Amino acid sequence: MGKFDLLKHELVPQFRIMTKEEVEQLRKDLGVRKEDLPWMLKSDPVSKAIGAKPGDVVEIIRKSPVAGKSVAYRYVVPG
Amino acid sequence: MSFYELIKSIKSIKFGVLSPEEIRKMSVVNIVTADTYDEDGIPIEAGLMDRRLGTIEPGQKCQTCGNRVGQCPGHFGHIELARPVVHPGFAKLVYNLLKSTCWNCGRILLTKEEVEKYALLMERYQRKWPQLRLRLAERVIRRASKNTECPHCGEAQYKLKFEKPTTYYEEHKEGTVKLAPNEIRSRLERITDSDVKLMGLDPRIARPEWMVLTVLPVPPSAVRPSITLESGIRSEDDLTHKLVDIIRINERLKDNVDAGAPQLIIEDLWELLQYHVTTYFDNETSGIPPARHRSGRPLRTLAQRLKGKEGRFRSNLSGKRVDFSARTVISPDPIISINEVGVPIDVAKLLTIPERINPYNMDQVKRLIENGPDVHPGANYIIRPDGRRIDLRFPKDRKSIADAVEIGYIVERHLKDGDIVLFNRQPSLHRMSIMAHKVRVLPYKTFRLNLCVCPPYNADFDGDEMNLHVPQSEEARAEAGVLMLVQEQILSPRYGGPIMGGIQDYISGAYMLTRKGTLLTREEASQLLARAGYTGELPPPEISEPKELWTGKQLASLFFPKGFNYSLKSNVCLKCQTCKKEECENDAYVVIRDGKLIKGVIDKKSIGAGQPESVLHRLIKDYGTDAGRDYIDRAFKLFLAYIDSRGLTIGLDDEELPAEAKKKVLEVIRQAEAKVSELIDIYNQGLLERLAGRTLEETLETKIMQELEEARELAGEIASQYLKDSNTALLMARTGARGSLMNLAHMVACVGQQSVRGERIMRGYMNRTLPHFKQGDLGAEAHGFVYSSYKDKLNPIEFFFHAMGGREGLVDTAVRTSQSGYMQRRLINALQDVRVEYDLTVRGTDGLIIQFKYGEDGVDPAKSDHGKAVNVEKIIERVVKAGGS
Ligand SMILES: [Mg+2]
Ligand SMILES: [Zn+2]
Ligand SMILES: [Zn+2]
Ligand SMILES: [Zn+2]
């Protein structure tokens, strides 16, 4: 069996590690600390696949039946 | 110094463990005697009711703080335990601590490098992710307890076993050894502060050895008051009983130790002491028998006081009793508005609203004061600006009091028409379970409510009771009136449609009024419209020769706003292959143009409760909640007026079938029976073909059930064909007012297969359901098929099978309600603080984000069109229709 790339699976949405500037902007827009975003573990298969480290913020773009496209963010924590 | 500088705000709360020193420090008396009172009823010194523990008798001064009953906060005492015992609440933690530390040198079972690594990590977590600290601690403990040799002193580690609730064993080569609590305590003492930190504890407030008790705090007497019965016998609180047990065993243990008794006896007493302390904390600890009262009732100790529905949290802290509320039986009132609630005059005289006197209400308020507490629009109290309350019950001369009041006085006046109150029916499962209503003071003793608000409350009138609350501030009333008023709740976020609307007779009435052939004379039409509160002109009659006659549709049209356009399929629609729309010969396609009902009958699909995309829904969305409320209040009265004038009833002859139909029904059932026995024959010959994923027996069962179900359906169809159009049960089923065609078929044709757990009835005797059948009989009759209709009567065997099926239904509902109730509790606890912010993000407490945009699209389902923000099709249709006409 060949190596399976989970990021290419149809049901896995788009993940992207955000840059420092983007994170800062997001923080300002939402008026929160990074810790107040929903969390995602470093041991999450996707974190491993995209190389996210604790402290990173990941942007997730999902196809949504109600909104067409919806954007969410996850704060990566150790564990 | 300003006011705000003086106010402290709580930043965080930290929980720790009481150290023996702290327990002794906060204690005012060392309790050594198990007795409470002497013969004269005086508390014994150093006993459990020592005067220094606080006063409970009124008039007495506390021996510790000098305060009287209300002021004295109560004071703790303590018991010096002869031997240490494990605190049962920390037993698991103690096990983890023992497992991951060396029994010899007390260091954590990690190498120096690991310790450094984890210490660094712990420090970082503490700074950045304090919530993850405990998970790291878990990891450290898991890691350390794997080590079988101490990296510090090199000693081999024994395997530890923990037996609930408070026993620990060490597995030596020679056999297992029980660890005594004092040994455990000395091991815990040896753990260094830095190692304690690694395992997730703060050693300053929670040293491990404090989890093995050497001193036990004794709560103040106010926590466990003794009660004196009328007979003069004093009865002590359960906690006191338990403390008595602890002191008795403790003293005996102490005496035995001092006397140098054999080890065995001491160990027995020690274990007994541990048992008593464990049950003192929690008398429902698994693994040990609960301590009982002399009567055999289990004692209610510390944990039981807090836990569960009757515990401190749910019963006293989350659940509070309130003033300004009333509860009584509800009954229907089709005349009052849906926004109103009928309040009995006796209730209105007890519930009050504080009203401040000003130049404008002075005269009116004076009249209320003169009326006093016993005459309805009256008042119960006057509050003067200095805070003094004047009770209006007692003074003879209220006139002079009324004359004496001035601007700025507050009068607690009776509830009167138009006041805003909150009305509630339990279980409060959704937000429409509590709505704001306007008061209508009415005679008699029940709360009255409009029938259209029954669905949101899920109320009926078979004895249901409801609660009423009176908001006391102007702000609260304004908020309730704007946000919670019934008319603001008609559109439910659950349905995407109106949750309130016509039920039962409203629908039957609307149908009968608006169907073809309803013609009314001038007198009849006027009568109906008058009852609906219509004050406009009568439209020109539909038929003027030979007599002036108005159609029902004309009358129903009078309540639609001008310019209102809508069309839909009604409930009576036969769902033909291609809908002929306007040309439907059953008048089942509703067309409203420019506020006139041109075609179609009004039934459940147009005005029913919980019907999305209905006329009512459109009306409220396009013309607002005021128009919606007005339509329900007025047009619905017209429907009731018509059904009142005409009458609607069902009787036995509605369930009667002509002989021809009966024969046909019988024939259908006989045929099905023949097919069933044919199937059984095939099965017996082993020729039945197995369905995929089923056994042969299951295949046979499925096929038989299919056959019988089809037969019942067919019988029902035949029956409904033969029922007359004038049959009111059929009318109600077709319009959606009440009941279904299946209910009707059960009554007139055949009740059909009874089932338990989704299968034909199989239980009972050996290889048969009842002794009336042969063993192994697979036929319809032997497994719960009811041939008869309810009207014909069920034979005893059918009746029995029917009862079996019916019982399952009852059990299911009972189980479902309890299960869904518990689920609801947990969901509400989890979601109660979640809210949508102005930027459309969904956040919990402290602003932590749950959704970045509410529902991903930010649409309020109550204001949406089928979940979408706009319904383009409907808008186009409306614009085109409006332009075309
Ligand atoms: Mg009821
Ligand atoms: Zn005191
Ligand atoms: Zn060691
Ligand atoms: Zn149709």
UniProtKB/TrEMBL annotation, chain A:
Under InterPro entries, the record lists:
Arch_Rpo5/euc_Rpb5 (IPR014381), RNA_pol_subH/Rpb5_C (IPR000783), RPB5-like_sf (IPR035913)
The main location is: cytoplasm
The EC number on file is: 2.7.7.6
- Please give the catalytic activity noted in the UniProt record: RNA(n) + a ribonucleoside 5'-triphosphate = RNA(n+1) + diphosphate
Q: Which GO terms describe its cellular component?
A: cytoplasm; DNA-directed RNA polymerase complex
Molecular-function GO term, any one: DNA binding
Entry's Gene Ontology BP terms: transcription by RNA polymerase II; transcription elongation by RNA polymerase I; tRNA transcription by RNA polymerase III
Q: Which residues form the RNA polymerase subunit H/Rpb5 C-terminal domain?
A: 4-76
> What single Pfam family name could you report for this chain, choosing any that match?
RNA_pol_Rpb5_C
Which superkingdom?
Archaea
**Transmembrane helix keyword on record:** no
Keywords in alphabetical order: Cytoplasm, DNA-directed RNA polymerase, Nucleotidyltransferase, Transcription, Transferase
Top EC group: transferase
Q: Does the keyword Transcription apply?
A: yes
Its subcellular locations are:
Cytoplasm
Q: Which family does it belong to?
A: Belongs to the archaeal Rpo5/eukaryotic RPB5 RNA polymerase subunit family.
What function does the entry list?
Answer: DNA-dependent RNA polymerase (RNAP) catalyzes the transcription of DNA into RNA using the four ribonucleoside triphosphates as substrates.
Q: HAMAP family this protein is in?
A: RNApol_Rpo5_RPB5
Subunit (UniProt): Part of the RNA polymerase complex.
Q: What is this protein called?
A: DNA-directed RNA polymerase subunit Rpo5
Organism (species): Methanosuratincola subterraneus
Name the gene for this chain: rpo5
Automatic annotation (TrEMBL), chain B:
User: Cofactor note, please?
Assistant: Binds at least 2 Zn(2+) per subunit.
Query: Which reaction equations make up its catalytic activity?
Result: RNA(n) + a ribonucleoside 5'-triphosphate = RNA(n+1) + diphosphate
- GO terms under cellular component: cytoplasm; DNA-directed RNA polymerase complex
Which UniProt key words apply to this protein? Answer: Cytoplasm, DNA-binding, DNA-directed RNA polymerase, Magnesium, Metal-binding, Nucleotidyltransferase, Transcription, Transferase, Zinc
Describe the family membership recorded for this protein in Swiss-Prot or TrEMBL: Belongs to the RNA polymerase beta' chain family.
Q: Name one GO biological process term.
A: DNA-templated transcription
Q: Where does Mg(2+) bind?
A: D460, D462, D464
Q: Does the keyword Flavoprotein apply?
A: no
Q: What is this protein called?
A: DNA-directed RNA polymerase subunit Rpo1N
Q: What InterPro entries does the database record attribute to this sequence?
A: DNA-dir_RpoC_beta_prime, RNA_pol_asu, RNA_pol_N, RNA_pol_Rpb1_1, RNA_pol_Rpb1_3, RNA_pol_Rpb1_4, RNA_pol_Rpb1_5, RNA_pol_Rpb1_clamp_domain
Give an example GO molecular function.
DNA binding
Q: What is its EC number?
A: 2.7.7.6
List cofactor names only: Mg(2+); Zn(2+)
- The source organism is Methanosuratincola subterraneus
**What compartments host this protein?**
Cytoplasm
Q: Name one Pfam family in it.
A: RNA_pol_Rpb1_4
Subunit structure of this chain's protein: Part of the RNA polymerase complex.
Q: State the top-level EC class.
A: transferase
Functional summary from the UniProt entry: DNA-dependent RNA polymerase catalyzes the transcription of DNA into RNA using the four ribonucleoside triphosphates as substrates. DNA-dependent RNA polymerase (RNAP) catalyzes the transcription of DNA into RNA using the four ribonucleoside triphosphates as substrates. Forms the clamp head domain.
- Which amino acids does the record list as binding Zn(2+) 2? C102, C105, C150, C153
Q: Where is the RNA polymerase N-terminal domain?
A: 209-514
Transcription as UniProt keyword: yes
